[in-house]
Fold each of these.
Amino acid sequence: MKTENQKAWFFVLPVLLLVAFNALIPMMTVVNYSVQETFGDNVFFWQGLDWFQQILRSDRFHAALGRQFMFTFLILIIEVPLGIAIALSMPRSGFWVPVCLVTMALPMLIPWNVVGAMWNIFTLPDIGLLGYFLNHTLGINYDMTQDPIAAWVTIITMDVWHWTSLVVLLSYAGLVSIPDAYYQAAKIDGASNWAVFRFIQLPKMKTVLTIAILLRFMDSFNIYTEPFVLTGGGPGNSTTLLSIDLVKIALGQFDLGPAAAMSLIYFAITLLVSWLFYTVMTKDDQN
Amino acid sequence: MQKRTIVPIVYILFLMLPIYWLVAMSFKTTNEILSGFSLFPQTFTLENYATIFTDPSWYWGYINSIIYVSINTVISVAVALPAAYAFSRYRFLGDKQLFFWLLTNRMAPAAVFALPFFQLYSAVGLFDTHLAVAMAHCLFNIPLAVWILEGFMGGIPKELDETAYVDGYSFPRFFATIFIPSIKAGVGVAAFFCFMFSWVELLLAKTLTAVAAKPIAATMTKTASSAGYELGLLAAAGTLTIIPGAIVIYFVRNYIAKGFAMGRV
């Protein structure tokens, strides 16, 4: 049982100050932009909620949001089961464990723009390893700069390549923590592999899986650098995810007001979905 | 047993292919890369690496990155430790709301918040310093560190704290000499995640720096656009960005696997 202690606030204070400095002040600025119009020279006019209305009604925003949800949904349903499956089949002890862990963690440690550039070159039709193989060896017509479907397959594959290991590492850590006694008991009861997974392994992985799924949701929903470097949002607008569109408006057209309004709506959506995930996944712990 | 090991092997091969391609390209001349497909470098060259190690604007990129990533890791873990302790041991006014609010800070779209960040850090006179990037990265690293450490601390029985007080330990002494050593795996995991996310983040790092603290990833984008598209050089620089990370994982690999094991039983 936790004890009630208001002095615990002092322990939290440094974290609070540092995070608030970084979170609240920029947030205030964005809120400020979102209700004003400017023609430069730091002269601002009160605009009210016009930008919010304009964004919420625009087809462009709806299309980008739809692509964003599609992207996040696809990578979650691919990466989470795949990550768990790989973690289950990894060795539990011996020489191969560190080899697996180190090689699997490698993609996560590559700066995001390098990941984008690397996949761009890797998939070029005539000089990239994957692009050359698909086009010249298998005879599949694959060019992600021309074909929207190829572009989607490429950004999804890139994200699976980049982030499945996060799910693997966390699931594996959860699996390693299960004492042998549980497996022995299951064996005596004659439990099937599926039963062992469903009633022993999955519940024990729950805490770490919560971290993995929430992190993957938040990060994929805010993904910017990698798809931007890889496809630039193209061909056409087919891979223009929400944050790419946001930057196009904010820095490309320099419409700070609409961009700020859009990012607040975006933030609210992320917050709402994360809160739903968080509440559902930690529900049992509260009881 | 044999059949099972195929899955990790196939997965690792899949992970290694793009990395192999990057490394192979770093030993090619840009002309060879552009002239057509070749699985291995035909004219093996170390010129790309030589450029990076002799040109200060390149190698300082790495040094800058390492400096701010280290500062960030130290700050994040240091302030997250007491906070995580408070969350795992005590109930206090607004604790659950605060914990969730911390998590929400990973969700702000960095793309648009970059400009306010620039204004904020310019206003306090920290623009283009390592500290600015290190502090800005705290926004998403501290919540994660608190979250991870809280999980580890939750697994340490409260009796440990109580026994220490009965034995006459003061709180700071108990915390430093008994508590932290017993969750050192958790500290390792938290530090690894802070290192990783700070090392790979580019948007804020690029926005908050100009010359003096410019990260390697920003150096790469700039050189790629000004000096044509020098693929060989870019590949070599990219290859070198993997190395510090690989060293860090090598040292924390046991913590990652065994680390989470504690307290989850």
Amino acid sequence: MFLEYFVNLRDFFDKGGVVLFAIFGVLTLMWILILERLFFFLFRLKDVHAATLRDWQSRGDKSSWKAHKIREAMVVTMRLLANKRITLIKTLVAVCPLLGILGTVTGMILVFDVITITGTGNARGMAAGITKATLPTMAGLVASLSGLLCAVRLERAAERAEEKLMDELQISTD
Amino acid sequence: MKKIPSLIGIATLIAAACPLFAQSSATTNLDALLERVEQNKILESKENEQRIQRFLSQQAQQKELLAQAKAELAAAKDLSIQLKNSYDENELTLADLETQRENEMGDLGEIFGNVRQLAGQFKNIVSSSLTSSQFPGRAQFFADLGESKALPTIEELNKLWFQILQETVESGKVARYQAKVVNTDGIESTQEVVRVGTFNALNSKGFLDYVQETGQLAELAEQPKARYTAPSIAFVEGDSQSVVIDPSQGALLQAFANTPDLSDRVNQGGEVGYVIISLLCIGIIISIYRWITLTLVQTKMKAQLKDLSKAGSNPVGRIIKVFQEYDRPDVGVETLELKIDEAILKETPKLESGLSTIKILSAIAPLLGLLGTVVGMIATFQSITLFGTGDPKLMAGGISQALVTTVLGLICAIPLVLIHSFLQGISNRCIAIIEEQSAGLIASFSEKSAK
């Protein structure tokens, strides 16, 4: 059964050409990064949050200029941790459709190669190039869409983590 | 009769020569003339009479000749009738013999027609077949046999049969033989050639092309890729049992030679293509430089953040120096903050320099690709205006430019976008550290060291 899927996949890549491999590589990288972020938000975030909160609570001085700066530094440390690689994920999401277009144009070049060699009569020859033009576009869009929602959700999660920490690190007014 | 004008001429001569006594002698002269004309008339009538006498005397002789001619005519007519009869008789005999021959020939007529047709068809096969490089001069025999009106002889029929059988047998063989090969410089030499059926001929340099017009083998101007030629050359050398053949008998090899390689493709992009490639090079050079400097700064900063006691020569170190200088009880908090902000403002441009250039390059590249597309389409439409749409190959140049520049634009933009995002990430993190984090960390460090 897996062999069957493998054969189908291999046919798909054969039809789509080299650009599909590039899209596949970008998609894999994107999802590795997304899963890593997901792991961070689900398991690591709680510990980091609790540790930072404990550090702040253990401080005596919570109102001086230095205390303000230290609090700011804690929030920024959390932001840097939470936002790590999210920009890269968003860039990869943006690159996928570009790769799709690249595949389209290389496919069209193939079509015109066929026209140059055999004239416009060879519809079968042209069809291979047209497949190479359309499959990467579709793959690029699907890959991009699959990552787009995750990228937006991760960004929101990072923002919320920062805001939550900012709320809980209270400055004493005395 | 000829005498009359001369007489008149003499008369006028005399009249012109002697105008003085014309009046007296003119009448006598004219009378003499008249007299002489009279005499001539008599003479002529005499001659006429003599002629008539002569004709009358010959009349009998003429009649005799006429009778003789009539007799000859009658004899000829008799002969004519006689010959016509014999012609008709011969015609009948001929028709008889014709039907007799046809009866005796039976189906042979059809067979000879088939032989001619077969020879004509086989001439085309033989002249385009690769085996002709091994057995030259066969096409002429088939051409003669196909066009001749005479009945083919037994020898010719046997030869036809033998040649067809030979072609059939040879087309299934891998043969080694000496043949004349024209190399790419046009120089002819006899060398060993390996023929694989009727598909391909090979020599030690690779595939050969059979030129039908000259009946010679020619080296290809451009051999296909090494992974196709290498096993075939090894096969010619006798090192290998496997061989790559072109089942289309040379058409695929030609197509391989015509397929543009990478440098051809890049050249199709034209000036716009070169501009895009140079932009990519500039972008990559800037990226590499920025990546090296940013990584150096980042590692130094990280080391500095771990050990805040000694201020090094990096952004965080310089902020620590400012902090150490102004963190005194006699300096107000506002002054300290202002000084730190000032130090931070000095550091940020260094971290961000060059990144906007990479971003702009990544944005310009697809636009240039679009420009190339439009330039190519203009070229295409110009060629349509000049030559019409009849020949797709004339339009192909512009279309290739249009597509290749788009591809180049994308190929240039995609890595630059990724690189920009990567470098921007590093630089943003560094800026966040020096702008917001460093002050707090230094503050907590100074608190701890004060205790």
